[in-house]
Specification:
Layout lengths: L13 H11 L12 E4 L9 E5 L4 H9 L4 E4 L16 H11 L3 E4 L2 H5 L4 H6 L6 E3 L2 E2 L6 E2 L1 E4 L6 H12 L5 E3 L12 E8 L1 H4 L6 E6 L2 H9 L3 E4 L9 H12 L5 E4 L11
Parallel strand pairs: 2-3, 2-13, 3-4, 10-11, 11-12
Antiparallel strand pairs: 1-4, 5-8, 6-7, 8-10, 9-12
GO cellular component, one term: mitochondrion
Pfam families: DUF34_NIF3 (PF01784)
Keywords: Metal-binding
Length: 274
Amino acid sequence: MSKMSSGENSGIKLSDVILALEKFAPKRLSEHWDNTGLLVEPYTPRNVTKILLTNDLTEDVALEAKDKRCEMIISYHPPIFSPLKSVIQSAWKERVVSLLLETRIYLYSPHTSWDSVKGGVNDWLASAFPFNSSVPIIPGDDPETGAGRLLTFNTDFNISQAVTNVKRLTGLHHVRLAIGTNKTITSNVRSVALCAGSGGSVLKKANAELFLTGEMLHHDILDATQRGISVILTNHSDSERGFLRGFSSHLQSQLENQVDVIVSEYDKDPLSTV
């Protein structure tokens, strides 16, 4: 058994993990409508020796955390959003909460605080492009934080190269592409607006030649292409999940290697292209 396996006298306190998480992305960066922070805290506390990172907390991922003897799950998307009226076994979210409480597993969700922060999910997504400037589309109180990113280039870079780079970054074999009116796949772009997840409402506020997000409404895509803007879609969580790989190493380092930080093997987008 690893020296960092579950035990009452090893690992670190929950408060120390939360301190490191909120040093990276303060909770105040979350959107007002979001439900972020510590969402499940079992009655009897214990130290944290192993953390499971996931984009979405499904029942399979919760069981994975139990089987791997994790004391904490960090789920990018908050699985508790609408109020729960009960914690019984009739619905999957209730079963997940019940399992976490029974097995004494903490749950923390950062969501839009990770989107907004410099070095977060949107900046990871932006790393697919050879940009020379990057600014939030909707700035926060700090001009370096906020929703989405607007990238500009000073080099030739076309839509086909953008598709290739996005596939390489996300590990996807396929993405969805809508080419703007009077453009071709070899047309150069000098600006990209991107927003991880479902970015339609944010991208409407950007002036760019290419949009990148996980999902958009049909009529928003149609409107963009008719205005000459091309669109790349990856599926919602596939525009976010790859961030976890790099963040796992960062968090483990910030916790001075006193905690194992692993990425879920069961977490995946519910949609695939077949």
